[in-house]
Amino acid sequence: MTEKVLMSGNHIIGEAAIRAGCRFYAGYPITPQNELCEYMSEHIREQEGGVFIQSESEIAAVNMVEGAASTGARAMTSSSSPGISLKQEGISFLAACEIPALIVNIMRGGPGLGNIRPSQGDYFQATRGGGHGDYRTIVLAPATCQEMADLTMDAFDLADRYRTPVMLLADGMMGQMMEPVVFKEPKPRDYPDMFMLRGAGGGKSHFIRGLLLDQLEEEEHNWKLARKYAIIEQRETRCEYFQTEDADVVIVAYGTSARVAKGAIKRLRPMGMKVGLFRPITLWPFPMNELRKLSEKTKYFLDFEMSLGQMIDDVRLALQGYADIGFFGRPGGVVPTPVELANIIEQRYFKNNGPEKRG
Amino acid sequence: MSSKTIFSGFGGQGVLMMGYSLAHSAMSTGYHTTYLPSYGAEMRGGTANCTIAIAEEEIASPISSEPDYLVVMNTPSLYSFQNKLTSGGLMFLNASIIDARPSRQDIEVYAVPCGEIAEGLGDIRAANIVMMGAFLRKTALVTLDTYLKSLETIMGSKKRKAMETNTKALAAGYELLKTS
Amino acid sequence: MPMKKIFSKPASLKDAPFHYCPGCGHSIAHRLLCEAFDELDIRGIAIGVPPAGCAVLAYNYLDVDMIESAHGRGPAVATGIKRMLPDRVVFSYQGDGDLAAIGIAESFHAANRGENISVFFINNAVYGMTGGQMAPTTTMGQRTTTSPLGRSKELEGHPVQVCELFSHLRGTTYIERCAVNTPANILKTKKAILKSLQYQIDKRGFTLVEILSPCPTNWKMSPVEACKWISDVMTKEFPLGVMKDIPSAQQKKGVDAHEQ
Ligand SMILES: Cc1ncc(C[n+]2csc(CCOP(=O)(O)OP(=O)(O)O)c2C)c(N)n1
Ligand code: SF4
Ligand SMILES: [Mg+2]
User: Fold this and answer.
1) How far apart are CA C160 and CA C163, in angstroms?
2) Which segments of chain A does DSSP mark as H helices, in order?
3) Residue A61 contacts residue A26 (beta carbons within 8 Å)
4) Where are the domains of chain C?
5) What is the overall mean pLDDT for chain C?
6) Which ligand 2 atom is the nearest neighbour of the CA of C25?
7) Do A306 and A346 belong to one domain?
8) Residue ranges of the domains in chain B?
9) Is A227 in the same domain as A345?
10) What average pLDDT does the segment A121-136 reach?
11) B33, B34, B60 ranked by CB distance to A338: nearest
12) Residue A314 has what pLDDT?
């Protein structure tokens, strides 16, 4: 189907996953991602061998995914912030055991029970690994419904290629919002049988484990993972540049806040304020080099988040002091408006007809 | 062309349907569009609203702090949203159940007795489509034809009877503002 | 005179020395499992989930495909495997801490869903691996490193009777409590294991075999004393026997049955 359809983000993820060959979904209800759970309960079961389980908890869900994925099936789970905290144990195990899987986090306001409004408060949890141990999770951050479809499919490919859990990180607004979308043709799957646990048959039995009691063995395993992560960092960064060529100020924002930023830029540009946007699409690996390169021309960067300064750590690491970095963010489930952001930028950088260091 | 509309009212008045069908027909026309519904706790107490953005170019934020058009189907919605409407914006108000009128002078208000008109057509449930007729007459965001096609796609071919009513309801709303 | 072979290593048991303490029940349970795999000829289609616990390295001994699980999550992992590969024989192997404390939700709900898997539950009344702390199945008055004065109902509550509890769940078909403290009990345990696996092959839903198992090390007893303690003390809290066994005819009629 190359036809355009109007669907909500949550449904799009489900549909894209099924088209990509996902045949196992387990999850536990939590707003604002229930529609994904519901979509899967209906549609994954229409596929041959497709399994949906409403699990007893998020912990159970991610462990069911581990089991299903270990057999070689494409498998996924989804949740929102509090539930993702519970899944961290399983994500760490998936990383350790090198099992591919997709975990979707439709973020909501936190900490604690927080609220169900859109938020970006889980950036640290997502990009730093989140669970215990020395591991990384590939994190994809869509900003449009079309990207939710495309990145869901890509997430499965990346998970397979690197045998690692991949997280799709969006928020309540992206999950609820509808936009026209065209589902691309998924790539044929390329995942060797040797990694699938399907019974020994007449041959040798094998096992999948993360437990390595010998510290030197565990060290070697960590080095092996680290080499894999280094390759991912080299090859898999993605980002979008929006009107950065001549920009005096570049906003750095992802997901929903990047859309707000574009709205602000559209207000500022006609008034002669040269503002652009750098949008990381992969949050890990963060497009460090791409951002650093921008500092050759632009000297003012504004990190903009729906949280209180999490991604800014990566922005600092990328810019390494080559440029001035400002911050604006609102936490707790508030989505700032483009007008609000435009005012902040005008005030801070263009008060005297030119970008100025913020006071 | 770039516009934002908020539809608001009780759940059950077909408020989300109005927004969804508008977004669908905007998509069919070839525009960029976003549909953002209220969700979760907001829906408690039975109120619902949605924001629809339609533009020729990529839409930045799907949220609207200053909508160009506002459709209010009940009194609480009038109070919640009237001050958001941009100066010079158009407000479509369900005159069948809203007695109050906005205090602002810088907007245009169309009071549409969509309930009575729908009842006259034999189905009160078509009140939202009557309102859509009036809305499309003044905003011309999409053509009536495209809109009807979208409605048909959304409702499925089985609902022939309802489609007939909707076609009449849409025309009635459209004619109402044409003649006034 | 040609010698007759009357005892040998089961084919499904790897040729590796056990790391378990002398007199530990895990070794016996492993061996019984492997004998059962051989007898049912399912080594090639069995997939197991070992626990976090003393049996965490079970894959070093059982010559079948296995995947590690987080502490207590075995039945969830097994659920995922079984749902994708319904014609494999999938089992989890769990201790009392693993099943009845941290993983009670995963166990309970796998049972309640009637997942067509076998759960082998090693009840040794302590957390063996972490050094003998109190377990949900620690008996009344039993001293452990975290119940130094003995388990009391006021402070620690009563021991959890897993078989009794789970037999109330309508997804379960067969539940039996056995022990590996005497030759006769060991034979019964073997039979129970075989039955559980056979029920799974026949797609009859969730089965669980609890195995009272000596942990001489943490009980601070000799292996012989430990076996006797099972008879004298443990079986009083945890009576042996079949707690539930739905005949297949009855199950077919849909009484208390699980649909597969
Ligand atoms: C989340 C988590 N908490 C704690 C542990 C530590 N731990 C490993 S095994 C175990 C208890 C094992 O006891 P039991 O399940 O009874 O098995 P046994 O060793 O007695 O056979 C604990 C607490 C862990 N691995 N993971
Ligand atoms: S500590 Fe207990 S359960 Fe663990 S191996 Fe030793 S005897 Fe067995
Ligand atoms: Mg134990």
Assistant:
1) 9
2) 9-19, 34-43, 58-70, 81-97, 123-127, 145-162, 172-176, 215-235, 255-268, 288-294, 312-319, 338-349
3) yes
4) 26-259
5) 95
6) 8
7) yes
8) 2-176
9) no
10) 96
11) B60
12) 98
Q: How many residues does chain B have?
A: 180
| pLDDT tens profile B162-180 | 899 999 999 999 999 876 5
Same-domain pairing of A271 and A164: no
pLDDT in tens, A16-38: 999 999 999 999 999 999 999 99
Predicted pLDDT of residue A127: 98
Average pLDDT over chain A, rounded to an integer = 96
Residue of chain A minimizing CA distance to C62: A205
Which residue in B has a C-alpha nearest to residue A257's C-alpha? B61
Helix axes A58-70, C104-113, angle to 10 degrees: 70
Tell me the ipTM for this assembly.
0.91
Residue B107 pLDDT exceeds 50: yes
Tokens linked to A159: 């998970």
Q: Does any ligand 2 atom lie closer than 6 A to the CB of residue C140? A: no
pTM of the model: 0.92
Look at residue B38 and tell me whether its pLDDT is greater than 90: no
Tally of structural domains, chain A: 2
The domain in which residue A24 lies consists of 5-235
CA distance readout (Å), A226 to A95, A222, A229, A231, B51: 11, 6, 5, 9, 45
State yes or no: pLDDT of A355 exceeds 70: no
C124 Cβ closer than 6 Å to some ligand 1 atom: yes
A34 contact B CB<8A = no
Neighbouring C-beta atoms of residue A144, cutoff 10 Å: 24
C26-259: CATH architecture? 3-Layer(aba) Sandwich (3.40)
Q: Quick check: CB of C179 below 6 Å from ligand 2? A: no
Query: What is the C-alpha to C-alpha distance for residues C110 and C77, in angstroms, rounded to an integer?
Result: 10
CATH 1.10.1040.10 fits B2-176, yes or no: no
Strands C241-245 and C89-95: unpaired
pLDDT digits (tens, 9 = 90+) for A137-168: 999 999 999 999 999 999 999 999 999 999 99
C 42-61 near A (Cβ less than 8 A): 43-47, 49, 56-57, 59
Residues A81 and A128 in one domain: yes
The partner residue sitting opposite A335, judged by closest CB among B20, B63, B66, is: B63
Average confidence (pLDDT) over A219-238: 98
Q: How far is the CA of C16 from the centre of ligand 2 (A)?
A: 17
Residue B86: DSSP 8-state: P
**Which of A235, A257, A275 corresponds to the end of one domain?**
A235
A262 with B60: Cβ contact below 8 A: yes
Per-residue pLDDT at C257 exceeds 70: no
